[in-house]
Amino acid sequence: MAQEQAAESFAGGGGRGEAPYPGPVTVMAHDQQYADLVSGVNERYVGRPETVQVVTTPGQVAPVVRQAAREGKRLTVKAGGHCLEDFVFSPDVQVVLDISNMNQVYFDAHRRAFVVEAGAELLDVYEQLYRTWGVTVPGGICATVGVGGHVPGGGWGLLCRQLGLISDYIHAVEVVLVDSDRSVRTVVATREKDDPHHDLWWAHTGGGGGNFGVVTRYWFRTPGATGKDPRRLLPRPPATVHLQAAGWSWDTLTEADFTRLVKNYAGFFAAHSDPDDPYTALASFLVLNQRSNGQVAMVTQVDATVPDARSLLDTYLAQVTEGVGARYSAATTRMGEFGPMPHLAEPRTLRWLEATRYMALSNPNLTDPTLRQDYKSAYMNTQFPDDQVAALYKHLTRPDIQNPGNSITLSSYGGRVNAVAPDATAFAHRSSAFKLMWMCQWNDPADDEKNITWNRECYEEVYAKTGGVPVSDGITDGCYVNYPDIDLNDPAHNRSGVPWYTLYYKDNYPRLQRVKRRYDPRNFFRHAQSIRLP
Q1: Cβ neighbours around 322 below 10 Å, total
Q2: CA distance 159 to 102
Q3: Domain covering 2-9+22-236, topology
Q4: CB 3.0-4.6 Å disulfide test: which of 166, 293, 302, 418 passes with 242?
Q5: How far apart are CA 534 and CA 531, in angstroms?
Q6: Cα distance between residue 12 and residue 18, in whole Å
């Protein structure tokens, strides 16, 4: 009880109090701003809730949840707005709790940890942590992803091979909960093994968003860090990085070249996925754009401060391009989530924050809010089988699809991500070498069916031998919960017999269900792929 009471009154140890901030503010359908508050980054999903409740401080969350629980209203939470399915804006939602103004970052001297409110967006977090204390957390690339949903899914980024996942740095999490009698309480759950709410902390280290309660803030600290100096309680990013972007023209890329390039990339990270490998200083993603885009592209970042950093980059580029007849040049077209990067054809040495800002702001989602989107994912533990690469090539070169916004991105994993046991946190994919993201982006609703169909057909043929999805079989290793895919629930598309929750959580799912039963016994917080009560 003491922790719950403290959570209600805690002012942040240098953070802000509650009094100067108005709210919650109720926004209804007749208000002009309503339309902009009931959609996120994916324009396929637009909600019609009775109200949007806009909050500014953590203390304003519990009253909103309490009223919705008392009235039996279906409530969901919006932070950065990057949920890729309709989990926030499904038709039955009556109250949307918008926490995007709840975005403060500060140091809590009492807990010796950095507080990040759940509405904060990634680039703001990086800038505030680094400008003030010279530290960071290894999260994602896109500037406007909200911390609230990104962190509990694991959170991939360009520093993950070197530092691990952002969820590995959670020291504590504050959550607003609804009990079986509809009463509402606020709990702080910590990493400490003797914490009575330790399981709730564990569930937020990879157990996905929207499952247990409303996260209001996280405390971040490096596991095992000692002392009181904030500058020593989270990792320092590299002072400088080498950044390079290469593009291969589809006009010169034969099927043999494509196959060799993809297999070289996969083989490299399969061979260098050990936590102590020297190449943990290097991260790279290979964007296999649909042929109408004009190019396939690869972006690579290396910590420029490690010994022989430039040699690591040069060796990597030589191994990935070995035997590929087509030569790479500047990346001049959009690359999945990123815009063209023509001036990085040759590696450039940039300050870390400079490079991070550049990557974070080079994103079509930031410049085109009308995008409609569809996503799928997979983890790979080892080299691609021949049939999977052949299926990738077949669908990326189909003449019936002409959409430059369709792509499949291979992102390096492994390294320090794999240093953590699969059951030590809720994030279970601790043996993977890289992951894949299928991404379709388009503007016209009339193009929905053809793009969604292309995504399904490509994905299901790549994993045809395992029922259309990447089951954990030593080669593939399931799916990434932060790229949710409702098709995994559908036996017409998932013919593997392996349920969606096993693809996301593997053997950790039963424990997540036990946490769900204890902390959300009414299943108040739910969506189409939320943790089910046991």
Answers
A1: 11
A2: 26
A3: 3.30.465
A4: 302
A5: 9
A6: 10
* Strands of the 170-178 sheet, one edge to the other: 105-108, 113-117, 214-220, 170-178, 184-190
Residue with tokens 């699969």: 422
Say yes or no to pLDDT of 12 above 60: no
Structure tokens at 530: 């939320």
Per-residue pLDDT tens for 37-62?
Answer: 999 999 999 999 999 999 999 999 99
Q: In the structure encoding, which two tokens stand for residue 50, read together? A: 């009775």
Tokens of 484: 């949710």
Q: Which fold has domain 240-507?
A: Vanillyl-alcohol Oxidase; Chain A, domain 3 (3.40.462)
**Which residue in the block uniquely carries the two structure tokens 């049939």?**
387
Cβ-Cβ contacts under 8 Å for 290 (sequence gap 6 or more):
396, 401, 402, 403, 404, 405, 406, 407
CATH 3.30.465.10 domain locations along the chain:
2-9+22-236
3-state secondary structure of 378: strand
| Residue range(s) of every CATH 3.40.462.20 domain in the chain | 240-507
First to last CA, the chain: 26
Are residues 371 and 42 in contact, defined by beta-carbon separation less than 8 angstroms? yes
Give the Cα separation of 102 and 82 in Å (integer).
16
Q: What is the pLDDT of residues 309-365, one digit of tens each?
A: 999 999 999 999 999 999 999 999 999 989 999 999 999 999 999 999 999 998 887
Residue in this structure with the two tokens 């690339």, named with its chain if needed:
141
pLDDT above 70: residue 72: yes
- CA separation for the pair 294, 251 (Å, rounded): 7
Cβ within 8 Å of residue 143, ≥6 positions away: 121, 122, 123, 360, 361, 363, 366
How many Cβ atoms from other residues are within 10 Å of residue 72's Cβ? Answer: 10
